[in-house]
């Protein structure tokens, strides 16, 4: 209840504003426009700020929502309320068709793609005869409840802001869930998310559709607010402005969308009203000043105004401590009678004319710690990527419990009980340690987006967070559980990655340079933890350059040099191997 108190207070304040005696009607119009813009920006918060997918074309989805209700109500006499699901459905279908192509793009091609179809749809709206071409459609009936008709800005005000508050609540529920964490993980690239079972194309398409549906809702309300629809509000310039709103308010924050909409809409109105008087009525000057002021605002608060304001508060919102007594069921996996857990048989990986892994063969048995060592560029991380499905082998065979995994995607490999960390830490810096670790338990839950938005996933969510808290305690970071991952030292971040990997409840744990950045005592605690994991039935395959750490810990060592295995054996045997001494350890070994 305490977490929802700010939302309740805000709802009460917004409900009382139109009832204030003598409030100018123009203020209500401004608030209506702010609410409409906030709905679109809220979708962009999820799409761009959280999911990392930049879109300049959201105004076009407003057009789908507006034109759908305009056609159905004026040409066919359908009730405006009946057209609401139709408007959302048309916006969603358009998002599916555009998203299947768009979300596959990356880098600068993604925003360029959204600009392209945004411009294309704007011209489509202006050329279709049944949409009224450039003149659009007028005479759209107002929203009504019985005999009450929402003809004026103050009557439709409540419909707009109820929609804003409901969508904000649903969006916050979605972000605070298993699905929300998967979406937030997209910002750090697809490799880490897929390593824990996230279907990244599906997650991207989901957030793309959700943002489009929110824009379609805004368009539906806009059509019945203005009582007309024409192409002008749905063009590329409007799309750019919506993205500005999300960025100014705080692209990763739901309430940043509302704040950003208020700042941009009010600022534009003030400049358009007063600058002509100051500068003698010169046209377009307000656009220049508006742009300059937005740049200055972003210089002051580069992450957005909302997080900047939150940083000034003397207190920080607290999170309920997970109940670690709640148990999460162990994942169901196929078992095998063979003591060999991982088998690599003549694995080869070529990049053009370069052979990164050259017919490498070795096994990892149950309850065993195996170290993979060698000079930089020896092919160790590439071997990890072959095992976990990040890369596909050119030839050879890789099996887990007798099941071949070559060419299997990472989402399928992790289901077999193989989890990993990364050479370069891949955490989401603006998520807490608890949230980052909980991503590792993604496959141990099943609640979808709808269940998350309606908070039907709370029992499962409690189990997932409890498991994450247990693994954090297991690696000794309970004191950092609510800290942002980006605020931790490199060594601590590596430990967080290990906790995330343990949330999979793996049979085989792959650790890529886990001791890098750790102090001596931290290395000793890590070694103790890995021995406990081995004694508990887990196998560990690790890449590490700290030979003291490796020699004291590993049961067996495999040595690579230029992609080729040059030795394999116990630590004592590897120390005496002349090929290893020459290639890696040096004469001092």
Overview of this structure, please?
By secondary structure, the protein is an alpha/beta fold. It has 2 domains: 29-259, no CATH class; 340-585, Rossmann fold (3-Layer(aba) Sandwich). 54% of the residues lie in helices and 12% in strands. It contains 23 helices and 14 strands. The chain has helices at 5-16, 25-50, 58-75, 80-102, 109-127, 153-175, 178-185, 190-195, 200-226, 236-249, 254-278, 285-300, 305-312, 380-387, 410-415, 433-438, 449-453, 458-474, 490-502, 520-535, 547-553, 571-576, 578-585, and strands at 137-138, 144-145, 148-149, 228-229, 340-351, 354-365, 369-373, 395-400, 403-404, 418-420, 508-512, 539-543, 556-561, 564-569. The strands form 4 sheets. The chain has a 6-stranded mixed beta sheet with strand order 10-11-12-7-13-14, sandwiched between helices. A 4-stranded antiparallel beta sheet has the order 6-5-8-9, with helices on one face. Strands 1-4 form a two-stranded antiparallel sheet. Strand 2 (144-145) and strand 3 (148-149) form a beta hairpin. Helix 2 packs across helix 10 (236-249). It starts with a helix and ends with a helix. The mean pLDDT is 89.
């Amino acid at each position: 209840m305490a977490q929802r108190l700010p939302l309740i207070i805000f709802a009460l304040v917004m409900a009382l504003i139109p009832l204030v005696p003598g409030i100018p009607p123009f203020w209500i119009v401004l608030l209506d426009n702010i609410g409409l813009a906030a709905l679109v920006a809220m979708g962009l918060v999820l799409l761009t700020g959280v999911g990392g997918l930049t879109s300049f074309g959201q105004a076009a989805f407003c057009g789908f929502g507006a034109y759908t209700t305009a056609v159905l109500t004026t040409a066919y006499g359908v009730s405006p309320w009946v057209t609401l699901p139709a408007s959302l459905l048309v916006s969603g279908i358009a998002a599916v068709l555009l998203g299947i192509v768009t979300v596959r793009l990356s880098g600068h091609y993604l925003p360029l793609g959204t600009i392209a179809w945004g411009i294309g749809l704007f011209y489509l709206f202006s050329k279709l005869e049944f949409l009224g071409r450039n003149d659009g459609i007028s005479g759209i009936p107002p929203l009504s409840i019985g005999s009450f008709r929402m003809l004026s800005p103050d009557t439709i005000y409540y419909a707009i802001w109820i929609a804003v508050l409901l969508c904000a609540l649903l969006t916050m529920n979605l972000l605070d869930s298993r699905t929300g964490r998967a979406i937030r993980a997209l910002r750090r690239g697809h490799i880490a998310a897929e390593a824990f079972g996230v279907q990244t194309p599906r997650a991207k398409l989901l957030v793309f559709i959700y943002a489009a549906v929110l824009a379609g809702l805004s368009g539906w309300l806009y059509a019945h607010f203005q009582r007309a629809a024409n192409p002008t509000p749905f063009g590329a310039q409007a799309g750019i402005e919506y993205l500005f709103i999300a960025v100014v308010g705080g692209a990763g924050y739901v309430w940043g969308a509302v704040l950003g909409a208020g700042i941009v809409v009010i600022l534009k109105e003030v400049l358009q009203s007063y600058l002509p008087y100051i500068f003698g009525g010169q046209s377009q000057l307000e656009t220049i000043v508006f742009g300059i002021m937005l740049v200055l605002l972003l210089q002051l608060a580069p992450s957005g105004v909302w997080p900047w304001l939150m940083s000034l508060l003397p207190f920080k919102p607290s999170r309920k401590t997970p109940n670690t007594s709640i148990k999460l069921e162990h994942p169901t996996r196929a078992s095998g009678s063979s003591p060999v857990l991982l088998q690599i048989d003549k694995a080869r990986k070529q990049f053009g004319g370069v052979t990164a892994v050259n017919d490498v063969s070795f096994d990892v048995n149950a309850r065993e710690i195996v170290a993979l060592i060698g000079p930089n560029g020896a092919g160790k991380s590439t071997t990890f990527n072959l095992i976990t499905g990040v890369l596909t082998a050119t030839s050879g065979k890789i099996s887990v419990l007798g099941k071949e995994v070559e060419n299997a995607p990472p989402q399928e490999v992790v289901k077999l009980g193989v989890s990993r960390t990364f050479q370069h830490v891949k955490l989401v810096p603006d998520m807490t340690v608890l949230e980052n670790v909980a991503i590792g338990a993604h496959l141990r839950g099943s609640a979808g987006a709808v269940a998350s938005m309606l908070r039907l996933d709370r029992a499962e969510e409690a189990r997932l967070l409890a498991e994450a808290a247990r693994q954090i305690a297991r690696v000794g970071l309970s004191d950092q559980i609510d800290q942002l991952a980006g605020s931790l030292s490199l060594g601590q971040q590596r430990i967080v990655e290990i906790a995330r990997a343990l949330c999979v409840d793996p049979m085989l744990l792959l650790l890529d340079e886990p001791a890098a950045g750790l102090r001596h005592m931290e290395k000793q605690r890590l070694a103790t933890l890995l021995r406990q994991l081995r004694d508990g039935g887990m196998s560990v395959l690790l890449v590490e350059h700290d030979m003291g750490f490796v020699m004291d810990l590993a049961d067996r060592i495999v040595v690579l040099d230029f992609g080729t295995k040059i030795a394999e054996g116990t630590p004592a045997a590897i120390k005496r191997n002349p090929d290893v001494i020459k290639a890696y350890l040096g004469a001092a070994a």
